[in-house]
Every structure is written in structure tokens, then in C-alpha cells.
Specification:
alpha+beta; five-stranded antiparallel β-sheet; 27% strand
Amino acid sequence: MPPTWLDLDDDSPFSLANLPYGVVLCDRLPGRRVVVRVGQQVLDLGRLAERGLLPGDEWWTTGSLNAFMASGAARWREVRSRLTDLLVDTARMDDVSTALLPLDETTPVLPFEVADYVDFYASEHHASNVGRLMRPGQEPLLPNWRHLPIGYHGRSGTVVVSGTDVRRPCGQRLPVGARAGEARPEFGPTQRLDFEAEVGWVVGTPSTQGEAVPIEAFADHVFGVCLVNDWSARDIQSWEYQPLGPFLGKSFATSVSAWVVPLEALQAARCAVPSTTDGGLLPYLGEPQPWGVDMTLEVRLNDTTVSRPPYSRMHWSPAQMLAHLTVNGASVRSGDLYASGTVSGPARGEYGSLIELSDNAATPLGLDDGSTRTFLEDGDEVTITATAPGPEGARIGLGEVSGRILPARS
């Protein structure tokens, strides 16, 4: 990347190679501001547009990224190129610097209006681990798993931005230790609240209902990537998902990071996914150009790092997920979010959920303060971060997605 006139640390994960988008509040400015993060500052795109330095006045005044995302991939590339030029050109330094705000003077809000939310189940290691725990003595993967990306439709209205507290949900669950058919369900707060470390893909360009999005059109429709924590009430989930899929055990909250990293920033991190070497894929899932991503997540529970899940080990790529999501003619809209499902690797230190890390409560997980956890307790805070390789040795940061558990309402 060319040198910038900004005072940036050489190893900043928010360099010009990244330029992630977000929306913030600032006491000194009216309304929600659409911004790009650079180091420990944000660049107010509305101010730049007012001065004729950036196209799209109408994109930056809506308080969300949706209008800009709907403008299409050619516009995304144009704006990214223009921002890079402005941050490199010393002749523009005075004009641009007045649109910069210190990051710590802003409050991030949900960066886009979530249209639909779909969550996949794309990690073979996570699916196998959970299969062994929930169906002991049986094949951990069900017969269809290697043939299609499994997913479920979630609740877009309960997607919240990082830093939002999460209330412990209540619902029906079996008494601890009871099996289905042996006891009546009871109602109360979940006793098995879990996190799920995931990666989310944000749709920019909509598609037409009745027309599938081919796998090679992935980058024409998907704007960028964020981090996701798909909070899960395992006891509510295990009782209700017989025979249908996740419902109240998932719908109470899903947290996303405040920054959406443009797809273009991940070009150096692309890698192949295992599904493309399995053989036997139906043609619409064949991936001529790899869209796996070499990304490493880190999960902290309170002050303890409990896992480092590798996204590069995911069986299904985001391009395959989008192709499958739309193959029946379902359309996507600007602001649609679809997530990867829990990211887990083959080693225990790479598991992306507590149900795996604690062997479904059989093996308590030790924390640095001497306490242990099988599932989340009130007051616990979970923080997920991630980085990916960028050009010329740079690192691309995705920020963080965090949330603290509040007690159930009495």
C-alpha cells in the first residue's frame, strides 16, 4: 500500500489495506454518521461528500450502510479507491483531516439495517463435535451434511451491535439430567447459555426473486464481512428442535461487530475450502475460484482466552452458502446477513463454543481467575476478535463483537 499522511502504527490492523465501514454517534455532530475506520480515528463520509471529495451524498445521510451497499460493486470499488487516494495525497490533507474524528469520541451503532438473517452450519469440526455429544454412538455427521450447506432462518429484529448486553432468556426446557419422554418440561431461565464464534457476510446488491445467484457472482452481491456471536440457549434448543430446527433457543439475541470489512480487503486472505476437494458436489456448488478465507478468531471469556478458532478450516465457503441460499429462487436484499455457524478447528483450543469446550458440561473449563465454567453465568462477558492476512504483510482487523450476560427478568 502507498504511504499515508496519517500518523498510523506500522502494524495497525486498520490501515489503508482495510478501511472498514461503520456507523457512529458523536456528541459534536447531529445524527448517525457513516464512517470509515483508519487506525484510532474515523473518517466522516458525509463531510467528505459535502465538500465534493466523495461521491454519493445520498448514501451517507441515511444513518446506515444500506443505501451505499445497494449501489453495487462498481460503486464500492470507486469509493474505496477514492478514499485511498485522499488518504495518500498530501495536497488533500487539510481538506480531509477536518473530517476525521477520534475513535474514542464516538459510539458505534448497528452499521446496517438487517433485512433477513440466515445462520449456516459450515464447520465440519463443530458439526462433528456436537453430533458426538448429542448423538453418542451414532455417526456424528448426518448423511446430507457433505452435500449442501445446512442453515436456518433466524430473527433479524434481535441482531444487536457489539457491546449490547444480552438478557438471559427463559423458555421451556427439560429438568437437568432428564431425557425426553421421561419428564415433563419446566419453564425458566436457560441454564445452558452458550456463545458461538462466527463470521458474518453482509449482502449489498439484491437479487431477483426466482433467480439463483451463481457462485461466480458472489463478489457482485456480498459487500463485506463482520464478526458474529450467535448466542444459544442449549437446553431450550435441545427440547424444541425435535423435529424442526432452532427457534427460541437462538432468536433472543445475535451480536455483530461494529465494523464491516469490505470484501476487497480480503483478497490476500483467500484460500480453498475442503468441500471443493471432496468430490461429488453438485455443479451449482462447484467453486472455480476459491472463496475460503484464512482468518483466525480469538474468543475471550471475561479475561481468559479460551479459544482460537481457524476460519480457514471451514468446510463451506461464503460463496457456496450464498449459491445454496438462493438456488431455490429465494432472493436476497440489501442488508441481508448470513453467518457461517460456529467456527471450530480440530484441536480443543480451537473450539468455538462452550458446549464443545466443556464436553456439554462434563468437563468444566478453567479460567485464569481460578473459576470454572460449563456454560455462561450472569455477569460473564464474551469478546470475539479476528484478523486476516492483508497485502504486503499487513493484517486486516475485524474489530470485536462483545456482550455481557444480564440475569433473566424476574
